[in-house]
Specification:
Elements (H helix, E strand, L loop, with lengths): L18 H31 L5 H5 L4 H23 L2
Amino acid sequence: MTGGRDTTAERRILTDDRIDDLGEAILALTRELWVLTDRQAVLEAVLAEAGIDTARIDSYTPNDALRAQLAERRQLLIDNVLTALRAG
């Protein structure tokens, strides 16, 4: 336990010579984020054209199976990013 003290500076995820790798990772994540943002906008437009209220998305509560699937996919994304940062 750190007693609330910030220990971020005490950890080293990347060494100084890996800054280019970090930049590449950020760019890759930014590209993926844009693809998802674009698809989300298109999906919401298609749903609205079909008469489905897209406000339901914000209030939707996933069931246990979907929550588990989302948690698994989230962890896979995190693991892939960390693997990429550690490679090299």
